[in-house]
Amino acid sequence: xxxxxxxxxxxxxxxxxxxxxxxxxxxxxxxxxxxxxxxxxxxxxxxxxxxxxxxxxxxxxxxxxxxxxxxxxxxxxxxxx
Length: 81
Known about the structure:
mainly alpha
């Protein structure tokens, strides 16, 4: 007769790894949303000129600071073009 034994700490290691990965992911997302808009003046002007066909208000918005989510979206659009 074979008996199976499990060590008491074996299941908790997986849970600790999962919690660690979740914490790292949360910190990474937080770091992205805390980033500042570091576009130069010429990049802001270029973005404003590109946005002119969508309206003057949209172009004016491009001149100011943008939240990081919009920066990520803008950079993704530039890469796919």
